[in-house]
Design goal:
26% of the residues lie in helices and 16% in strands. Strands 3, 11, 12, 13, 14 and 15 form a 6-stranded antiparallel beta sheet that branches. Strands 8-9-10 form a 3-stranded antiparallel beta sheet, with no helix packed on it. The radius of gyration is 23 Å and the shape is globular. It is α+β, with helices and mostly antiparallel strands and 523 residues long. Its cofactor is Mg(2+). It catalyses: L-threonyl-[protein] + ATP = O-phospho-L-threonyl-[protein] + ADP + H(+). Pfam families: Pkinase. Belongs to the protein kinase superfamily. Ser/Thr protein kinase family. MAP kinase subfamily.
Length: 523
Amino acid sequence: MSSIACGSSGQLQNVDQRTSTYSGGSSKKNVNVERPQPEKPPRKKAVTGKISSASSHASSHSGRHHRHDVSIYPSKQPTKTVSRDSRDEYDHDHHTFATATTASATISYSTDDVNSDVSEAGMEVVMSSKDSEMEDISPVVEYKTHSFPAGKHTFTVDERYTMLRVVGSGAYGVVISASDAKSSKNVAIKMVPRAFNDEIDAKRILREIKLLKHMKHENIVGIVDMMPPTARYLEDFHDVYIVADLMETDLHRIIYSKQKLSMDHVQYFIYQVLRGLKYIHSADVIHRDLKPSNLLVNSNCDLKICDFGLARGINEAHAEGRGGTMLLTEYVVTRWYRAPEIMLACHEYSKPIDLWSVGCIFAELIQRKPYFPGDDYIDQLTIISEKLGKLSEPELDFVTSDKAKRFMRKLPNKAVTPLNAQFPTAKPDALDLMRNMLQIHPRKRINVENALAHPFLAPLHSTEDEPVAANPFDFSFEKEKLHRVRLQELIWQEVGHFRPSCLPVAPRRGGGEPGGSYRQKDP
């Protein structure tokens, strides 16, 4: 990543940025980011900025961000080496919009011009389910599409979308930037080929689609569109296409650039994370994977949370903890931001785990390096104890595992360096908020509402402008045993939310069409 020179105005200049669609990615571009103006309410753009020397990836509308990684790229856990060079090599591969979990990929986003690999000849076709071999089967959906190569795959999408460039690829699939003739905006289109080959990944994609469709908030990404399947039979539905707005970069890339971040920047970023998190928690959802690369940013410093592939409901999280089946393998990618109660295998965990992650991000924004860069659980907990202090015996009451308690008791009882010495440039109220977020005991940790009301965020805080979800998110689909064909059916139904013409779902081989034959028109 090229260096960033900070001008006297506080703008980011010559940033070798990678545009992040959904959950992250990258494309080279020069970005100027002006200093945030805290006195302005966030809805009126607390920050202004512009993109120079490159075409903008940003969604042209300044309101909510309908985009996402549906999380579909997995994140690769960086090594303990925390130099900027090594962190750049880490490159925050995600599985969101990527948020799938098993694949890792470096996402590179760029919308400078149309990919030269795409032939003008274009292979435009009209997709119709009519076919000489299956003339007895009625079309599932008819709509005009065109196909074009993108990396090692061929995209077949609605003709309203014109490819600009491949911005990311990996085991999870391919992400392209595209112009949308209908909205006159640039978008990200993620193709997940053979999405149902791995049922765990397919379930994660379904979860993310449902969550992002449910959440309508300026600081949370959202899905714009999905491509209708053209398969005649449900079992032949293989590739999933998700369309979202583009974001220019993510917080990871900003932190590990040479840009000088003022406390105004830090304040505005943390405020937006908490504002989005308030909405998430009000829907009884725990994100569980907050980290800098899952916080997408535009040149005006607007921020959106992405990657909900690991999200859980409050009750589901408690059940996982009691059953001892927390998906800790999925958490390997984000150890540095993981709350102590997760690593200590506590029977229950809840919303406080997200506040711990925000505290870690807060510290990283100020120090420009990870605050708890552990190599494994033992190393991670040791570093936490050294920086925040060893817990007393009464404070271990939240640890339900005897083995974990014995480990915590054996940690060295070292003198702790005060936070104001660890963060000499930070204001006292900033350190007080950080201290309240980084309480090892989860019940002592500040909640999101009180964090927003903290004096450090007073210039931005407005209860009336910090909305909550109208209804809790329904995780009941998680209770069902979701085999491959059922996942195909459920994701097809989700596509129908954006494209009613693809409903009802195609019939299974040997079975009838589940929802009748009437098809609506797409909006």
